[in-house]
Write a structure and sequence with these properties.
Blueprint: H1 7-21, E1 37-42, H2 53-71, E2 75-77, H3 87-96, H4 100-117, H5 133-149, E3 152-162, E4 167-169, E5 174-175, E6 178-179, E7 187-196, H6 202-209, H7 217-227, E8 229-240, E9 249-254, E10 265-268, H8 273-279, H9 283-292, H10 299-304, E11 309-317, E12 325-331, E13 342-345, H11 351-359, E14 368-369, H12 375-383, E15 397-398, H13 409-423, E16 426-432, E17 437-438, E18 440-441, E19 451-454, E20 458-461, H14 483-486, E21 492-494, E22 501-504, E23 508-509, H15 511-514, H16 518-521, H17 533-539, E24 544-548, H18 554-568, E25 581-584, E26 587-593, E27 605-608, E28 611-614, E29 622-628, H19 639-646, H20 648-657, E30 665-666, H21 669-687, H22 709-727, H23 731-750, H24 756-770, H25 775-784, E31 809-815, E32 818-825, H26 831-839, H27 842-848, E33 855-859, E34 863-867
Parallel strand pairs: 1-2, 1-24, 10-12, 24-25, 26-30, 31-34
Antiparallel strand pairs: 3-4, 3-7, 5-6, 7-17, 8-9, 8-11, 8-16, 10-13, 11-12, 14-15, 18-23, 19-20, 19-22, 21-22, 26-29, 27-28, 31-32, 33-34
Helix pairs in contact: 1-25, 2-20, 3-4, 6-7, 8-9, 19-20, 20-21, 22-23, 22-24, 23-24, 24-25
């Protein structure tokens, strides 16, 4: 019997067996009578062409859960698909002269093979790609459902526009004010876009977070802050100097009406209608607006930009005191899409406003002070604002605010709103930071939006019997912009309503739309509808969803919105798609640079005698810190190479073993080697003992002997702990339990014990408990142990509760609160026996030193404290 494990041949063999037997086919509800359902899903990948170590970690974790739940008797749904639309495919089309569809499907085929090589327990019969018309026809149908329900709107919005690529860029694609691909200065343009009215469900989305008890609190907080519910007031500022509009009132939203007496200016967004009107007759203002348009539209881009303003020949009258005037600016930091596109500035209590006031020499009046200050402290606080560069942003007590003076912040807000409403100068309201979801993209490789624009009828939905609206294949990428716009025939169609010449919508959906309902499609991927309602009711919500923290906001928030929208359309019966969410940490690796500062791949680096050098040149290499694996820094490790060298199980074992799954893990060659050594040790423990074992299924002749009990206790304690660890996704702890059990088995053999029934039981528990993590090795070992039934078809072993109880416990013995010795005694020993045994310990006798015992406290099973 070979004592070396041959991973490559074993893994290929078992993957073939699982495939032939359809071991991971999901049972239809009718077939699964008596089995509870369990739906485990990892966020599906973009088909870039190669899996990376982040994929290995993500999908290994989900696979452990799927295999464990299957062994525990659940009907498991564990599918895989491809988030296949997006800009990278168009970039490949330009750079490599290949059609995006060809590039995408080739990558899918390659990545499918790589994922299968990991031995994942996936039902591949449910596989789909979002770029397949068979998928996106249903997405188009859902859009029409939403359109009918009033969930969709079309309106003008400011976007990041790349003037070279002639396309809209996401905020994340604007780097230092330039397009991420073209390098052109980005412009802020106003385009007509399609939106999903997610803001209509903002309150529901916030309230729903309280029901997600099995989500990380960090993620729930991130979503709560992103939605950003703010209670405040809309305040009306009469303006003087607006051409042709003497009664113009500027509407401003504020969350701090208690600071109105500290106002020193009002500011408009560059996109505000009044700004646009004034710029039409003011070349200098128009030039300033154009400069502002070269900044991205994201809050980060605007907040980090230098605060700049253009002073208008307009003044605003204070809503509480019309005789008090403040100047009005157009400012580059005011967002048109939040609130009303206008603000009042209170520099003493807002850092952005203070920076702006200092730059333009505006008044800074403190109107909120810390509570419980003495008169001298208050004078000092107020006087500090003559030169102060940090705003006071905490709550406190109102000062310099007339009728508000002396009120706490919360009371002052209420009083200010009541006063505004009584004067007709404003009203209390609620505002959300969340904006409607813009789903239009000016690109080819996406799902076509199923509407037609008719000069007479306006926007007309594509008739449902004409879905899908498929992308044309004969497109070219030789010019910038959207190929659908310049296609000679695709967009020209008759209007479905009147029959006159009309044009298709040439925008395509944001790819977040594709991933906002895919989890429901997996429930019935061959359905003629987006999904079968009965199947969705059976499988949803997803019991365990796994993915990166980087998707904590947009993807998860959009999926929650989409689920609610589908419920409103009577397509689903639930509001939350994911019952439990787990966000795994990243995989990191050391970074390497040569003398010129160029990044070097790990496989090109030799580490020896504490020095690093380039294998190709021999030149020294600088070792940098471990960072997230990325192609740009070349600190990547190819999973295919690791699997080829060590096998998939070793890669899986290491990726699970080194760190708690929610934390980052550093990939090291030494760690991979260590995992490989344990893989072989595991195999040897079985192979070297199998010939001495009784046949599989042979009952033990009687109760275990004295020498066997410690091994059986170790095995069942490990099994109990691993069961709990898997339930709690503590994979690294489960790995540690397997190590401990392997050590106990080795120690049992080293002692010369010969109870081979106990040895078989321990080995079988070790194999079955390790199977979700190292499935190929487990199948090979299980077969070697003489079993005809596959591990994947074997129920999870049952813990014997009697073996979880120790025949002795070790407790501490203290004298006057200081630990002096330990006592090993039967767990059911009485109080008198424990006292007697403790007082008889040699170290305790010495510590007492003849002094009288005043009190003796026994905490059963834990500690004895002797007071002398």
């Amino acid at each position: 019997m070979s004592t070396r494990y041959h991973a490559r041949s074993a893994e290929g063999k078992w993957q073939k067996v699982w495939n032939e037997r359809q071991s991971f086919r999901t049972l239809d509800p009718a077939e699964a009578t008596g089995k509870p359902k369990y739906y485990v899903l990892e966020m599906f990948p973009y088909p870039s062409g190669k899996i990376h170590m982040g994929h290995v970690r993500n999908y290994t974790m989900g696979d452990v859960v799927a295999r464990f739940k299957r062994a525990r008797g659940h009907n498991v749904l564990h599918p895989m698909g491809w988030d296949a639309f997006g800009m990278p495919a168009e970039n490949a089309a330009i750079e490599r002269q290949i059609h995006p569809a060809t590039w995408t499907w080739d990558n899918i085929a390659s990545m499918r093979d790589q994922l299968k090589a990991m031995g994942l327990a996936i039902d591949w019969q449910r596989e789909f790609a979002t770029c397949d018309p068979a998928y996106y026809r249903h997405e188009q149908a859902l859009f029409l459902d939403f359109l009918d329900k009033g969930f969709v709107t079309r309106k003008k919005s400011q976007v990041n526009w790349d003037p070279v690529d002639n396309t809209v860029l996401a905020n994340e694609q604007v780097i230092d004010g330039r397009g991420w691909r073209s390098g052109a200065l980005v412009e802020r343009r106003e385009l007509t876009q399609w939106f999903l009215k997610i803001t209509d469900m903002a309150d529901e989305l916030i309230a729903g977070l309280d029901t997600l008890e099995r989500w990380p609190e960090k993620v729930r907080l991130m979503q709560r802050n992103w939605i950003g519910k703010s209670e405040g007031a809309r305040v009306f500022w009469p303006l003087e100097g607006v051409p042709q509009e003497p009664d113009y009132k500027l509407e401003v939203f504020t969350t701090r009406p208690d600071t109105l007496f500290g106002a020193s200016f009002c500011a408009l967004s560059p996109g505000h209608p009044l700004t646009q009107k004034l710029a039409a007759g003011n070349p200098d203002l128009a030039a300033f607006v154009r400069e502002c348009e070269q900044t991205g539209t994201s809050e980060v881009a605007i907040e980090t930009a230098e605060k700049r303003g253009f002073r208008l020949d307009i003044e605003a009258s204070h809503p509480f005191d019309p005789t008090r005037k403040v100047p009005v600016f157009v400012a580059n930091f005011v967002l048109m899409d939040y609130g009303t596109g206008a603000i009042f500035g209170c520099p003493a209590h807002d850092q952005r406003d203070l920076d702006f006031a200092r730059k333009y020499d505006l008044t800074v009046t403190p109107v909120v002070a810390p509570k419980d200050q003495t008169a001298d402290e208050l004078d000092s606080f107020v006087n500090s604002f003559a030169t102060r560069i940090e705003a006071f942003t905490e709550e406190g007590v109102a000062i310099n605010s007339h009728f508000l003076d002396g009120l706490g912040t919360i009371e002052a807000k209420r009083a200010a709103i009541e006063k505004l409403e009584s004067l007709g100068a404003g009203k209390g309201t609620i505002q959300f930071r969340l904006r409607d979801w813009g789903i239009s993209r000016q690109r080819y490789w996406g799902c076509p939006i199923p509407v037609i624009h008719c000069p007479d009828c306006g926007v007309v939905p594509v008739p449902r019997d004409q879905l899908p609206v498929e992308l044309p294949q004969d497109v070219t990428f030789d010019k910038p912009g959207n190929p659908l716009d310049r296609h000679p025939g695709w967009k020209h169609v008759p209007c479905p309503a009147c029959g006159k010449p009309a044009q298709r919508e040439t925008d395509t959906f944001d790819t977040f739309v594709d991933s906002s309902w895919y989890f429901a499609r997996f429930c019935s991927p061959k359905s003629d509808n987006p999904f079968d309602r009965a199947a969705a009711d059976y499988w949803l919500p997803v019991d365990q969803y796994i993915g990166g923290i980087e998707h904590a906001i947009l993807h998860l928030l959009y999926s929650r919105y989409f689920t609610r929208a589908m419920k409103e359309c009577d397509l689903l019966g639930l509001a939350e798609p994911f019952d439990s969410l787990f966000t795994q940490g990243m995989v990191t690796h050391e970074t390497f640079r040569d003398a010129d500062g160029q990044w070097v791949f790990p496989e090109d680096v030799r580490l020896a005698d504490g020095r690093a050098s380039d294998i190709r040149t021999g030149a020294p290499v600088t070792v940098g810190p471990a960072e997230k694996m990325s192609k740009s820094k070349k600190n990547v490790v190819d999973p295919a190479a690791i699997i080829d060298q060590y096998g998939a199980d070793t890669a899986r074992w290491f990726i699970l073993s080194d760190s708690p799954p929610e934390r980052d893990i550093q990939w090291t060659d030494a760690g991979a080697e260590s995992a490989w050594r344990f893989t072989n040790r595991f195999w040897r423990l079985v192979a070297e003992n199998v010939e001495s074992l009784p046949p599989a299924g042979t009952p033990a002749p009687g109760e275990a002997g004295e020498h066997a009990l410690p091994l059986l206790r170790a095995a069942h304690k490990a099994l109990d702990a691993i069961t709990n660890d898997f339930d709690a996704l503590r994979f690294n702890r489960a790995v540690a339990r397997i190590y401990e059990l392997a050590n106990a088995i080795a120690a049992f053999k080293a002692q010369g014990a010969e109870d081979n029934h106990a040895l078989r039981e321990a080995l079988e528990i070790m194999v079955l408990a390790a199977a979700p993590m190292m499935p190929h090795l487990a199948e090979e070992a299980w077969g070697l142990l003489g079993h005809d039934i596959l591990v994947v078809d074997t129920p999870w072993p049952v813990v014997n509760p009697a073996l979880l109880v120790d025949d002795s416990v070790t407790i501490g013995v203290q004298v006057n609160g200081k630990l002096r010795d330990t006592l090993t005694i039967a767990p059911d020993a009485g109080k008198a026996d424990v006292e007697k045994a403790a007082l008889a310990l040699e170290k305790i006798i010495k510590a007492i030193d003849g002094k009288p015992v005043r009190k003796l406290i026994v905490v059963p099973g834990k500690i004895v404290n002797i007071v002398v």
